[in-house]
Design a protein that fits this description.
Layout (H helix, E strand, L loop, with lengths): L2 E3 L10 H12 L6 E8 L3 E7 L8 H11 L8 E7 L9 H16 L3 E8 L3 E4 L7 E2 L1 H4 L2 H8 L13 H23 L26 H14 L4 H6 L3 H12 L1 H13 L2 H18 L10 H17 L6 H22 L5 H11 L6 H14 L19 H22 L2 H18 L11 H11 L16 H6 L6
Parallel strand pairs: 4-5
Antiparallel strand pairs: 1-3, 2-3, 2-4, 5-6, 6-7
Helix pairs in contact: 1-5, 2-3, 6-9, 6-13, 6-14, 7-9, 7-13, 9-16, 10-11, 10-12, 10-13, 11-12, 13-16, 16-17, 16-18, 17-18
Length: 489
C-alpha cells in the first residue's frame, strides 16, 4: 500500500461529492475494485490509504491489526471515511459491496478508529450506505468544484488505461492477431528480411546501431512519434506497422535491452543506452565463460555501470520525465494490444465477435480525419488496423507471447515506481503474476530473470526513489507531459 498526502494548496470539502472527487487526485488514478480509506489528519490535512477490498473470508481482526500498524506513526484524528469501489456496484443493489464495507467497519473499530461514513462507488452510481436504497449519479462527483480545482492545479491523476476505453478496445482486438504474427515471425526469423522486420520510419539517432530492426532504434522512433502528436498518442502508436510494434515488444521482453531502455528513458539519451547495452552484453558473455568478439570501450563499461545503478532507482537525475512519460504511453498501447491477443482467459472467437459488433462505430468523422492525416504525413508502412480479425485457435507460441505481455506490464510497473506510485506498481505486478502463471516456464530470455521479478526485487529494496520526496524533482504529473516539454532532445 502507499500513503498519499494532500497537496499544499487548500481544498475545501463541502459535501460527500467533493470528498469522492478528491480521492482520485490523491491516489493518482480512478480507483477500481479496491477500497480507499480517507483520514483527516493534524493540521487540517488529509491522507488516503488505498487497499484491497476485504471479502467474506477476510478476518476483520487481522485487517484491523494491519491497519493499526500502518497508522502507528501517522498523526490522524481517529476518524475515517471508508469508500469501496466496485465495477459490480449497479443500481439493482450493492450487497457484495456491503459485505466489504461491514468488514471494514469492524476492522476500523478494531484499530480504535471511528467510521464517519461508508460509501460505495460503481461505474454509474454511488451510495452512502446510511441510505443504501438511494443511488446517486457519479456525474455529481465529476461536476464537483473540487474536481475542477484539482484539474486546474495540475492533478497527477491518470485517466483509465486505453484498454478500458470503448474507443480503443475493439481496435486493439482487431490489431492483436496481426501484431502477434509479426512478433512470432520476428522470433523465428533467421536474419533474412521479413515483413516483421522491415525498416521502421524516421531518422536513426546518432551513435547508435543504425540497423532499423534494432529495438533501441524502434523505441527511439516510437517515443519521438508520440511526442510529436501528444493529443492523439493512441492513434499515433496504432499507426506504426505490425513489424515496428513487434520490435517494441521484443525490446522490453529481452532482459538486457529492457535495462537499456529504462536507462534511455531515465537519462533521455538513446545513445548512452546503446553504449550501456554493449557493455552489459560483453559482461554477460564474460560471466558465462565466453569471450566477447570485441572488447567493450571504456565509455561502454562506464555507461553499463551507470545503467545498473540508474535502473535500480539511484539515478543522479532527476529522470527525463518527458521521455519517460512518452514511453509509458507507448507501453499502454502495447499492453492493450497484447491483452486483447494473448489473454489466456479470453476466447479468440469472442474477441473477434466483439470486434465485429463494435466496428460499425469505429470510423467517426473525427477519427477518420485525424488518423488519415497522420498516416499520410508520417510516411509509415500501411498498418493492418483495417483488416478483419478471423477467429482462430491460439498459436503454438501462445505461452511465449503471454510471457512477453507480462514483460510489458512489468515495465509499466517499473515506470510507476520511478513516478513514486508503489501501490499502482504493485497492482500491475499482480497482473504480471496472472500472465506469467499462464505462460508456464517460458518466462524470460535469460534464465533466472523476469521483468516482474526484477521490479519486485527493486521494490523490496527501495520502494521510493530519492527524487520522489522533493517537489522540485518528483514526477510533475500527466498535465506536464500533455503541455509538452520545452526541451525536446
Amino acid at each position: 500500500m502507499t500513503v498519499f498526502h494532500e497537496a499544499v494548496d487548500t481544498v475545501r470539502i463541502r459535501s460527500t461529492e467533493d470528498l469522492l472527487a478528491l480521492i482520485p487526485h490523491q491516489v493518482g488514478r480512478q480507483p477500481r475494485n479496491t477500497s480507499v480509506l480517507f483520514f483527516p489528519v493534524a493540521g487540517a490535512s488529509a491522507l488516503c490509504l488505498s487497499m484491497n477490498s476485504p471479502t467474506e473470508d477476510t478476518d476483520p481482526y487481522e485487517l484491523g491489526a494491519e491497519l493499526a500498524e500502518v497508522l502507528a506513526r501517522v498523526r490522524h484524528c481517529g476518524e475515517v471515511v471508508v469508500t469501496v469501489y466496485s465495477d459490480h456496484a449497479l443500481e439493482g443493489g450493492v450487497d457484495r459491496e456491503a459485505v466489504a464495507a461491514a468488514r471494514w467497519e469492524c476492522a476500523v473499530e478494531r484499530a480504535g478508529l471511528t467510521v464517519l461514513r461508508t460509501l460505495v462507488v460503481g461505474p454509474q452510481h454511488w451510495w452512502d450506505l446510511a441510505e443504501p436504497d438511494r443511488a446517486l449519479p457519479v456525474a455529481l462527483i465529476r461536476d464537483s468544484a473540487v474536481n475542477a480545482q484539482m484539474i486546474a492545479l495540475g492533478s497527477a491523476a491518470e485517466p483509465d488505461a486505453p484498454e478500458h476505453d470503448p474507443r480503443w478496445r475493439h481496435r486493439f482486438a482487431r490489431r492483436a492477431q496481426h501484431v502477434t504474427r509479426a512478433w512470432e515471425r520476428l522470433r523465428t526469423d533467421d536474419g533474412d528480411p521479413a515483413p516483421a522486420r522491415t525498416t521502421v520510419s524516421g531518422p536513426t539517432p546518432p551513435t547508435i546501431d543504425p540497423d532499423p530492426r534494432h529495438p533501441l532504434t524502434a523505441w527511439h522512433r516510437a517515443v519521438r512519434c508520440v511526442q510529436a502528436d501528444r493529443q492523439h498518442w493512441v492513434d499515433t502508436v496504432l499507426g506504426l506497422s505490425d513489424g515496428h510494434l513487434a520490435l517494441l515488444i521484443e525490446g522490453v521482453h529481452d532482459d538486457l535491452v529492457r535495462d537499456a531502455l529504462l536507462y534511455a528513458w531515465l537519462s533521455g539519451s538513446t545513445a548512452r543506452a546503446a553504449a550501456a547495452l554493449a557493455g552489459l552484453r560483453a559482461a554477460m558473455v564474460r560471466l558465462g565463460g565466453g569471450t566477447a568478439g570485441s572488447e567493450p570501450s571504456e565509455d561502454e563499461i562506464d555507461e553499463a555501470l551507470r545503467c545498473v545503478v540508474a535502473v535500480a532507482g539511484e539515478w543522479d537525475g532527476p529522470p527525463d520525465w518527458d521521455t519517460l512519460d512518452s514511453a509509458y504511453r507507448v507501453l499502454q498501447v502495447l499492453d492493450g494490444i497484447l491483452g486483447a491477443g494473448c489473454d489466456p482467459l479470453a476466447d479468440p472467437a469472442e474477441v473477434a465477435a466483439g470486434s465485429r459488433t463494435t466496428s460499425g462505430s469505429r470510423e467517426s468523422a473525427d477519427d477518420r480525419t485525424s488518423s488519415g492525416s497522420r498516416e499520410a504525413a508520417g510516411g509509415r508502412e500501411p498498418s493492418s488496423d483495417q483488416e478483419p480479425l478471423a477467429a482462430r485457435e491460439p498459436s503454438s507460441d501462445r505461452q511465449l507471447l503471454t510471457a512477453a505481455a507480462a514483460s510489458v506490464v512489468a515495465t509499466l510497473a517499473q515506470l510507476e515506481v520511478y513516478r513514486g506510485r508503489a501501490h499502482t506498481a504493485s497492482r500491475l505486478l499482480a497482473r504480471c503474476a496472472d500472465r506469467e502463471g499462464a505462460a508456464g516456464s517460458e518466462l524470460s530470455v535469460m534464465p533466472g530473470r523476469s521483468a516482474a521479478a526484477d521490479v519486485a526485487h527493486r521494490l523490496r529494496h527501495q520502494p521510493t526513489p530519492w527524487w520522489c520526496v522533493d517537489r522540485r524533482t518528483a514526477w510533475p504529473g500527466r498535465g506536464a507531459w500533455e503541455r509538452g516539454a520545452s526541451d525536446q532532445r
